[in-house]
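User: Here's a structure from my thesis project, written as structure tokens. My advisor, Dr. K., wants to see whether a designed sequence matches the one we expressed. Can you design one independently, without my sequence as a hint?
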């Protein structure tokens, strides 16, 4: 309130000073104008007096004048200067064009004020026409008027000082009285204070805000209690940290998963786990990046999902979710081992079956029996070889470190080539394929990208309706390239969508067998997209079709860092 009182005092003094200064300036202006008019009247009287002497004695009378502060100029009818008491008439120009001279010749008298070319000062002129037609002009500078005004400045400054002192005294008392009710205000019970009428709206507003704050605090406490009940009953660990890595909120599951005895708020999250992987997750999420990693802790696999909390494009903290995925990782590991075993166990005999079937088809066995069975054996062998090929490809993607080179590639050309390859398969089902977009260049591994796009388009054809449609749309979005593959096929039930990218998982096993699916196509897609540092998700409704959306960075991270 002291600050408020000072501001009120300052503003009152400012207004008082401005009003006083403006008032004094106005008074000085009026006085100056009055003195100027008085000076002009004096010039008129002096000109009339001198004119009588000139008419009686001519210029001789002017030569006798000595006690005058005015400048006297005598001009004939042609404008020639006959006499001037301050300048040499021989060097003076013709004055016939001067305003006051012209007015005097026309009207008998004239006046003007201007900057004198000879005296370089603002001068007032009065001209009077004599009976002989000549013009007598009397002039004087404004120094005399300003001198009179200047004499008033000291007393006016004294008045200004007195006014300011009185203003300061009254402003101090007034500001004190204005803020006194505010100084005595009880913020907890503002409605109990008696104040002047102007402050009542403020008191009412404070009362309403206090009530609103109490309601909000009660709601916040209730929500916090509900949140604590929910988080404490979660099997997943939940951590909320600020941008300085300090723990703001934590549930008991965090201690169980990270195997620490005590987890307290207000401490650094690094105290919970000092591993380099965990520290890397925290650092990345506080830089504004989503992180999803699995930590190996005493035989358990803990998935760490971290999302930044941003405000006005600035990271203020992070929410970290810890999930025990030990069973899931083990199941995935068993499936990978199974895939590797299948590839090694079935490749050699299947190749032999394929060769034997070819021999039978060439007619080395009786025609009436062999060709039908040979054709079936060959068909099954080819299907199994495709299975082995898929298993090998997905195993390689799992192992990582593929010996592929990243290079620039036009997706439009690649999709066009894939359409040509699938043209026959699409024709059998009368599926129409459409492509939207133009040339879309990005850095990728052509082999993996082709495998991904081929499998997605092949699935869109296989699981489509007769006379269905497949749409592939390419879109360059600056730093990423988006690929949308949409079909009008059978769609995927909601309960199966989360598992559709698992290996060997089929929504409709009988239909998959009928069309020759291996159950590895979308798994290859998933791992291929991950290898290319992309993102993948799908939208699907049973009976209405499926849309698979993929996003790939336009530049490979290692190449981009090397360029920078």
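Assistant: Designed independently from the structure alone:
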């Amino acid at each position: 309130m002291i600050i408020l009182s000072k501001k009120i005092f300052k503003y009152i003094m400012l207004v008082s000073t401005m009003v006083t200064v403006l008032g004094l300036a106005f008074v000085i202006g009026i006085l100056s104008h009055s003195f100027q008019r008085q000076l002009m009247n004096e010039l008129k009287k002096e000109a009339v007096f001198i004119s009588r002497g000139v008419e009686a004695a001519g210029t001789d009378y002017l030569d006798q004048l000595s006690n005058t502060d005015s400048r006297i100029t005598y001009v004939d009818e042609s404008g020639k200067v006959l006499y001037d008491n301050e300048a040499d008439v021989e060097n003076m120009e013709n004055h016939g064009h001067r305003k006051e001279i012209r007015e005097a010749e026309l009207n008998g008298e004239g006046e003007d004020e201007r900057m004198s070319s000879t005296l370089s000062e603002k001068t007032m002129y009065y001209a009077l026409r004599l009976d002989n037609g000549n013009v007598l002009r009397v002039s004087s500078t404004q120094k005399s008027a300003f001198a009179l005004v200047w004499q008033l400045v000291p007393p006016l400054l004294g008045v200004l000082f007195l006014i300011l002192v009185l203003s300061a005294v009254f402003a101090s008392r007034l500001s004190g009285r204005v803020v006194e009710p505010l100084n005595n205000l009880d913020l907890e019970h503002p409605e109990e204070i008696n104040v002047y009428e102007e402050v009542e709206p403020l008191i009412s507003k404070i009362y309403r805000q206090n009530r609103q704050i109490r309601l909000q605090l009660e709601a916040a406490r209730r929500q916090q209690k509900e949140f604590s009940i929910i988080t404490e009953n979660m099997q997943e660990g939940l951590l909320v940290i600020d941008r300085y890595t300090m723990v703001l909120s934590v549930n008991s599951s965090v201690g169980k998963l990270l195997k620490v005895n005590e987890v307290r708020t207000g401490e650094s999250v690094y105290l919970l786990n000092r591993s380099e992987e965990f520290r890397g997750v925290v650092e990345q999420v506080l830089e504004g990046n989503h992180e999803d990693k699995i930590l190996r802790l005493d035989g358990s696999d803990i998935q760490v999902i971290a999302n930044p909390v941003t405000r006005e494009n600035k990271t203020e903290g992070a929410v970290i979710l810890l999930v025990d995925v030990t069973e899931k990782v083990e199941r995935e590991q068993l499936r990978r081992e199974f895939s590797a075993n299948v590839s090694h166990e079935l490749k050699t005999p299947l190749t032999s079956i394929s060769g034997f079937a070819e021999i039978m088809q060439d007619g080395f066995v009786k025609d009436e029996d062999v060709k039908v069975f040979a054709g079936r054996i060959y068909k099954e062998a080819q299907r199994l070889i495709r299975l082995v090929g898929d298993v090998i490809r997905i195993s390689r993607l799992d192992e990582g470190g593929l010996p592929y080179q990243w290079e620039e590639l036009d997706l439009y050309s690649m999709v066009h080539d894939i359409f040509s390859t699938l043209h026959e398969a699409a024709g059998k089902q009368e599926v129409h394929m459409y492509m939207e977009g133009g040339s879309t260049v990005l850095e990728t591994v052509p082999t993996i990208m082709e495998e991904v796009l081929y499998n997605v388009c092949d699935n869109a054809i296989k699981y489509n309706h007769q006379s269905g449609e497949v749409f592939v749309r390419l879109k360059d979005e600056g730093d990423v390239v988006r690929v949308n593959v949409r079909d009008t096929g059978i769609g995927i039930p909601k309960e199966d969508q989360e598992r559709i990218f698992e290996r060997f998982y089929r929504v409709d096993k009988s239909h998959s067998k009928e069309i020759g699916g291996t159950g590895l196509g979308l798994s290859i897609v998933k791992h291929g997209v991950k290898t290319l540092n992309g993102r993948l998700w799908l939208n699907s409704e049973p009976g209405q079709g499926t849309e698979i959306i993929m996003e790939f960075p336009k530049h490979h991270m290692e190449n981009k860092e090397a360029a920078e």
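When you compare it with your expressed construct, this may help: The chain has four domains: 2-148, 234-321, 329-399, 407-563.
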